[in-house]
Amino acid sequence: MGSPTQNRNLLFSIPGTKKGESKRGKRHRRMSGNKEMKSQGVPEEALANRGTSSLTAAVEQVAKQQQSQTSEIEKNKKVLFHLQDELHELEKQIASVSTETKETERQIYQQDAAIENTKLQCGNLETQIKSLHTENVKLKFDIEEAQEDYEEHMIRYNEYYAKIKEHKDSLWEAGSKRSFMTTLHEKRDLVRKLKTMKEELMQNLKNPEGNHIKQAQEDIIKLKAKIIAVKESIIEKTFFLEEEEKTHEKLRKEIEVQHKRYNAILKRLHCQVNKLQSNRRQWQSNIQQLEKTAAELRKRLSAFKATTSKRMIRQATDWEKILQKLHLIKDCYLK
């Protein structure tokens, strides 16, 4: 701030302070008039009367000037208060605009964070889809291997069944090929042999220590042993056939169970893949929507910053000029 003389000069330079200049001029003229009157030899009483009248007039004029100055000061104070109120309102508007810009920036940051999170989730979903795809491929390979094993087992089973059928057919054909005549000749030969054997046996009966009786007993023992061996082989073969049938039945049931299980797994995997694909489409649409909203918010923010920055700069410069003048006026009146 300047000196008191400079402040007084500023006061007199402000519009409405021209009365000070007129007052000085009047005083100067009055003093010059007094000097002239003294020099011309006017009487002292007349001069005294004139001086008192001029003093009263000057006092009245000074009082009027003080009243006018006080009224002007009040007006200037009112203007100052009004400008201060407008300045506070402007500061409030600036604070509200700054809070709005901060809120929009925070929303944009939140939108960007949400977009990043959705992108990460999409990446995780893609990795899950890839892993499920690999598992699906592995299951397909396992199913193909199980199918091949099943086909091999079925081929073996069919071969074994064909062999058994051929064996049964051969036995049936061998039994059916014997004709009636061959059986008749065989029976005749057998009757002849039996007759000869009967005669020999009759002779051997007469001779109990004969060779034929011993040989017949040995033949009977051998036949019994053969019959027992044949029965045992038949029992073993029937048991083996039953075991084979059981194993075939068990394999067939296991193959059916495996088919059902693999079909259920395939259905479940198809459902999971469809669900993941739908989720992926939903996330992609959400990402696009969020990107659109973020772009719109950025455009609005840039436009809002451009418009508000220019307007606020102009208003700030105007208000700075006004405030400088007001501070000068205030300092002058206070001093």
Automatic annotation (TrEMBL):
Keyword Coiled coil: yes
Chain residue ranges for the region called Disordered: 1-53
Comp. bias (Polar residues): 1-10
Superkingdom of source: Eukaryota
Coiled coil: 73-307
Protein name: Coiled-coil domain-containing
Origin species: Lynx pardinus
UniProt KW keywords: Coiled coil
